[in-house]
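RETRY 2/3 - previous attempt timed out on the joint model. Re-submitting the same 709-residue input unchanged.
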Amino acid sequence: MIERTSGLGPDVTPEYRELVERWQGKAERTPPRTGKGSGAVDRTISDVALKAVYGPADVAHLDLARDLGVPGEYPYTRGIHPTMYRSRLWTMRQFAGFGNAKQTNERYHFLLAQGQMGLSVAFDMPTLMGYDSDSPKARGEVGHCGAAIDSVRDMEILFDGIDLGAITTSMTINGPAAIALAQYVVTAEHKGIPRAKLGGTLQADILKEYIAQKEWIFPPRPHMRVIVDMMEFCSREMPRWNTISVSGYHIREAGSTAAQELAFTLADGFAYVEAALARGLDVDDFAPRLSFFFNSHIDFFEEIAKFRAARRIYARRMREKYGAKDPRSWQLRFHTQTAGCSATAQQPENNIVRVAYEAMAAALGGTQSLHTNSMDEVLALPTEKSVEIALRTQQVLAYETNVTNVVDPLGGAYFIEALTDEMERQAEEYFAHLAEFGGMVEAVEAGYPQREIADASYRYQRSIESGDRVIVGVNAFEKPNEVQPPDLLKISPEIERAQARFVQDVRANRDGAAVEASLAALKRACAGDANVMPYLIDCVEAVCTEGEIVDAMVSVYGRYTENTQF
Amino acid sequence: MPATNAPARPLRVIVAKAGLDGHDRGAKVIARALRDAGMEVIYTGLFQTPEQIVQTAIQEDADGIGLSILSGAHMTLFPLVVEQLRAQHAADIVFFGGGTIPADDASELKRLGVREIFTPGAPLSEIIAFVERECGKRRELVG
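RETRY 2/3 succeeded.
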């Protein structure tokens, strides 16, 4: 009884039994809090039921070697490195980019001059969806959320004067990821740098696009085929390239619970592993180049438990189910970004505080790299000032709070271990549901994860409407007649017009026959079994635009349309 | 027949996503909330053009259109919907919207003919009340 309600047992000594009984009596006589936010004291933001206090009974089943291990050893619950942040802090990687290739290139030169070693490319929406800047579909979107990259000519400008053999580049692109990789390879080889020397990461996680972010091009099956083509190509020719960054961030932003983010993200990762194994690739050849990307939301302990559970689940499956032998294949490495969806437009300065807690959860959860959101991102692209505060937040966390000095400092805490187990249990439940569909691709086609997330998101919104949950400045502690900060960053419409003219110039000044021939060869490759990567590289060499390449592929694969549900 | 005796046909609202913006969390929550408040809600799905959105509203005899944009394309796409509504003689349809829209852009959009702009954190109850009031007025006028 006591175990179930509090976890304070086992009451092995008379002294402890007496204490536990006293607590039980007092707890029963203490009325619960009323008023603001009191409707949610007994559950996490994801509706996981919570006891008032946790104790030895909650961890009695833990097997130290099997469930926790030590840092740097299987199953990596406590972290993937033996001494974690004592040996190396997480990478402070702020994702940024807007406008055109030239503006972004100037920014890169500035960042490299400040000592940054890696670049991160944000593409604009038309590029991410496979449309050229002069397409009617691109109206109003060119250069807004990143740089417009229509052809290899833009990629050449983007990396002008930068030694691609000496830096690593992270490209946040999914639907057209294989095309972006081809553009990068061609750009580098024109500069005399062989593809084998190129280091970097693609996001290339198409499954979460159908589930959450919605930047797809083809239906799931051909998309999976192109991704496996890319994994195979990189295994053979680009040993330093990380192929997929499996992303839960967007799943959480779409309104999922922590357990859904954990389960669907890992299930996406396992789907790529299974697809690559089905192609005949060796798991230890490609698995060390997979990495993960999670959200850090505002429910502090739940997030820490989620990160710990993710490492343990991944290690176990990779070793036991997929037969990986290389420890690097068992290690779940991840990047974290604080939750954009936890930020509020009201009293935006409060977002600085939210970001700080979320960043701390990521550090206590053992992240390898971190992006901290800027306070004004809920209103517009962040200003320079707010980006600086976001970076300083990480620096204060890393250098002043001392949370970095001890590995997995919450390991062994009754509550954290119980919650880590609960996250794993809920994830396993989802894995079982997904298996009933036949796998993640089939579940996505049936709209199952999409529906689960929409339901969770609606429940969450209702709990805010009812006042069960408090969001400071939104449904409590509001400031009347709030005035929005005036200095928000905006993108000039001239960028769109100039970029549209540029891509038209590019089309007018190239060998039309080479374009036609390379696109025709690409279509044949798409319709057959050949790996499409060399054909994509040929198209890029012939200066085909991204929109033309995508149209050629769509003529074979079709364009995905979602079976919409709300 | 006096309107008071007629069985009230529920208000009908289009919830729309335009352009290349895939952020549909808010649109789906609004769609459900309006439906739970007793309205008929048609969600267009993603990637609609302004022309398609206005066509859908006319074909469905909708009382209102709610457009959600979080990609930064609001100053292009909202005015195009207003323009289409006028061109199709459907400016009586209550056109409102929401998303990550800075306050001065919201004022400009309202000046151009968007009836209301809701930004992140707007209570569902406020949005429902607005739609019931404004679409109700439109229904009284148009029948």
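Chain B touches chain A at residues 15, 19-25, 27-29, 31-33, 41, 43-47, 49, 71-77, 80, 100, 102-104, 119-121, 123-125 (CB under 8 Å). Closing ticket.
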